[in-house]
Design goal:
Elements: H1 3-23, H2 32-88
Helix pairs in contact: 1-2
Length: about 140
């Protein structure tokens, strides 16, 4: 049972109790104080539930507005970084401060040279046999 269903069931139960007490008031002489307190609490609960529903709607609206602002903010951050990059240049190391990777030279590692004094061994390659193509069984 959901919370909304449980609340509705509780309110229906309370409403039936209030109606029963009202209908039988002449036979219940000592019930007036308890009845007044119960009805007061019941009205406060209903007011609070209405407030909760209103706040839920406001929260949902606020969440939608916040998400839209975040999308707009991300787009503006991209544009701002592009302006910064165009002003400083794509290789400027200050770009790191703006969380932009500057263009840097790529240094290649030199090819591995055999140690001096050892003759280079001739490399012989043996062809590897290729497996026959796989055939699909007839369906």
């Amino acid at each position: 049972m959901s919370a909304a269903q449980a609340f509705a069931q509780e309110m229906a139960d309370w409403e039936a109790l209030r109606a029963a007490v009202h209908d039988n008031a002449p036979n219940l002489p000592d019930v007036q104080r308890a009845q007044a307190a119960f009805e007061d609490i019941m009205s406060k609960v209903q007011e609070m539930k209405a407030r909760q529903n209103s706040l839920t709607a406001a929260r949902q609206e606020t969440t939608q507005l916040l998400n839209k602002l975040l999308v707009d903010g991300r787009e503006l951050a991209i544009r701002l970084r592009a302006v910064v990059k165009s002003n400083l240049g794509p290789k400027n190391e200050r770009l790191v401060q703006f969380k932009i990777a500057p263009l840097r030279k790529h240094h290649r590692k030199p090819a591995a040279q055999p140690p001096a004094g050892t003759p280079a061994e001739p490399t012989t390659t043996t062809p590897t046999p290729t497996p026959p193509p796989a055939t699909k069984p007839a369906a």
